[in-house]
């Protein structure tokens, strides 16, 4: 998914690129806030960050992550696939509780 297609305050599953630094934390879920570009570096700002390594982070904590470290970004409809019979607005409500 392209960063330009992300919606603010929507929850996504972010995948890190494979490296020695993040072998134990390959994915995380978070609410996308915004993307910021400074020269050649693009950073995403997220909150409600949930991963195996940081399960109890306060929901209000914002994190800045270098977009170059990410390999893939998926929304819940992307994960479920086109065969889903639930409309996107229902999936977004469900996703708020996951």
Q: Care to describe what's here?
A:
It is a single chain. The protein is of the alpha+beta class and 98 residues long. It is built from two helices and five strands. The protein has helices at 76-80, 88-97, and strands at residues 11-16, 27-38, 41-50, 63-66, 70-74.
- What's the CATH topology name? SH3 type barrels
**Oligomeric assembly:** single chain
In helices, the fraction of residues equals 10-25%
**Name given to the CATH architecture:** Roll
Structural class: alpha+beta
Major sheet: arrangement of strands: 4-3-2-1-5
How is this fold's topology laid out?
Blueprint: E1 11-16, E2 27-38, E3 41-50, E4 63-66, E5 70-74, H1 76-80, H2 88-97
Antiparallel strand pairs: 1-2, 1-5, 2-3, 3-4
Task: Describe this protein with a few key phrases.
globular; about 100 residues; about 40% strand; 2 helices; 5-stranded antiparallel sheet; alpha+beta; 5 strands; SH3 type barrels
What's the short story on this structure?
By secondary structure, this protein is α+β, with helices and mostly antiparallel strands. The chain has two helices and five strands; from the N terminus they run βββββαα. 10% of the residues are buried.
């Amino acid at each position: 998914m392209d960063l330009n297609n992300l919606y603010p305050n929507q929850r996504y599953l972010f995948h890190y690129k494979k490296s020695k630094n993040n072998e134990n934390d390959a994915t995380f879920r978070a609410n996308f806030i915004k993307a910021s570009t400074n020269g050649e570096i693009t950073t995403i700002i997220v909150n409600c960050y949930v991963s195996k390594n940081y399960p109890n982070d306060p929901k209000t904590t914002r994190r800045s992550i270098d977009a170059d470290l990410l390999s893939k970004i998926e929304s819940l409809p992307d994960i479920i696939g086109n065969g889903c019979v639930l409309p996107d607005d229902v999936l977004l409500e469900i996703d708020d509780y996951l």
